[in-house]
Task: inverse folding
């Protein structure tokens, strides 16, 4: 979701860039004990990414636990608390390189208590690997993770039906889980992610990197082959210009320049732009990438922009194309993934951090809470607590420059922050907005 790090409340929405040969960012998600950490350990081990001293340490730890075989999950469960509990409670990032491409993997928590960490890991992912235990099927946390991945715009989802060894490698067990996931995903509507379902055993290695010898009835690609085939598609380059200003800088050589990262679209010297929320139009005098002037720059580039005119611009303002500007508004309808242990309530006040702009806002109305089993929106029956997915109306004290999240992630995403504690309490996606210009 939504910012570079929900915990840190970072300024900018992450960009999904690349192509079929580019670095692919993906998350593993699902219910606790579905084998996510073991799966990543298997990927690391079978692609020869593990150093000898790392493997020796894991083998020693496995022996201390009285295990007959090496516990590959320990390659990712690095926190001592995780090793004691046998669960993942933080997002562990790992890197894999094969002959075809490179991967950044986020092993996200399965326990319901740590759903916020899953949302953090999903925020920068091109794809998701959602695991399900072949002997248990689609559980509530699997539904929640799949739905959050959908809300965050992840379009490529691999359903890894794990622990096929415990199910006797029976095809019927796989088909039952596959049908459950497909039936659930159909409720997402026309923007539902593409599901690719495959059976595997992370413990034994079948269908992870190599095919193994126990799933002859499955003719599809292995997990690694599937990941290598996914395009790290970029939409942000083709979208309208959105350049949130992070810093205003003066120096003798360049004069006043405006620094930031281009969230979407592109910008060129000489181009006519609009500064929001003031609505003043001006032209781009120069663009600098580091110390060097460049004729143009695109999504993901960190640049300094000089303007032809003396314009009042501060941190939190936005440069946009004059042809397709965002909406200037104080009122938005949004979906929240509620992350705080303190319940959400109508009238509650928070800071809303949207791109590089932070303003005060209040929850004007709670429209409904999503029932994760049916995806129906219902009136809250009690306090709206952590891990709830809720639709709300928000009113900001000052104007925001927004797009719907479905149209542009960079200006459609935000986080809510508790003023007193500075803790992030919710990750939000804008659905609708009212123009106040």
Result:
């Amino acid at each position: 979701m939504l910012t570079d790090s929900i915990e840190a409340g970072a300024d900018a929405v992450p960009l999904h860039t690349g192509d079929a040969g580019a670095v692919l960012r993906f998350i593993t998600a699902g219910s606790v004990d579905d084998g996510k950490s073991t799966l990543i350990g298997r990927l690391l081990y079978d692609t020869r990414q593990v150093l000898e001293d790392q493997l020796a340490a894991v083998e020693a730890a496995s022996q201390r636990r009285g295990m007959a075989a090496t516990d590959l999950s320990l390659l990712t469960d690095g926190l001592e608390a995780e090793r004691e509990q046998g669960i993942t409670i933080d997002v562990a990032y790992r890197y894999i390189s094969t002959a075809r491409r490179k991967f950044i993997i986020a092993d996200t928590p399965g326990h319901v208590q740590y759903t916020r960490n899953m949302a953090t890991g999903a925020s920068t992912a091109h794809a998701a690997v959602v695991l399900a235990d072949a002997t248990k099927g689609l559980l509530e946390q699997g539904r929640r993770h799949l739905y959050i991945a959908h809300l965050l715009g992840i379009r490529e989802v691999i359903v890894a039906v794990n622990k096929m060894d415990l199910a006797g490698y029976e095809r019927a067990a796989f088909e039952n889980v596959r049908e459950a996931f497909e039936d659930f995903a159909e409720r997402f509507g026309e923007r539902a992610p593409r599901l690719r379902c495959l059976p595997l055993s992370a413990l034994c290695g079948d269908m992870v990197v190599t095919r193994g010898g126990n799933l002859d009835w499955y003719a599809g690609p292995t997990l690694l082959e599937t990941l290598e085939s996914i395009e790290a598609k970029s939409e942000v380059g083709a979208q309208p210009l959105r350049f949130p200003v992070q810093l205003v800088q003066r120096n003798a050589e360049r004069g006043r320049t405006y620094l930031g990262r281009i969230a979407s679209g592109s910008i060129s010297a000489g181009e006519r732009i609009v500064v929001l929320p003031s609505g003043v139009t001006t032209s781009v005098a120069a663009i600098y990438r580091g110390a060097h002037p460049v004729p143009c720059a695109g999504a993901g580039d960190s640049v300094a922009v000089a303007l032809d005119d003396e314009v009042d611009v501060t941190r939190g303002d936005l440069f946009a194309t004059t042809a397709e500007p965002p909406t200037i508004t104080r009122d938005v309808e949004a979906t929240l993934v509620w992350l705080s242990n303190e319940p959400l309530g109508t009238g509650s006040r928070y800071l809303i951090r949207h791109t590089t702009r932070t303003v005060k806002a209040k929850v004007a109305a709670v429209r409904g809470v999503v029932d994760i089993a049916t995806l129906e929106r219902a009136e809250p029956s009690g306090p709206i607590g952590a891990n709830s997915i809720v639709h709300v109306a928000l009113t900001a004290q000052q104007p925001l420059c927004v797009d719907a999240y479905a149209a542009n992630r960079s200006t459609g995403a935000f986080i809510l922050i508790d003023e007193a504690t500075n803790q992030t309490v919710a990750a939000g996606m804008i659905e609708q907005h009212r123009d106040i210009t």
About this structure: The first strand starts at residue 24 and ends at 30.
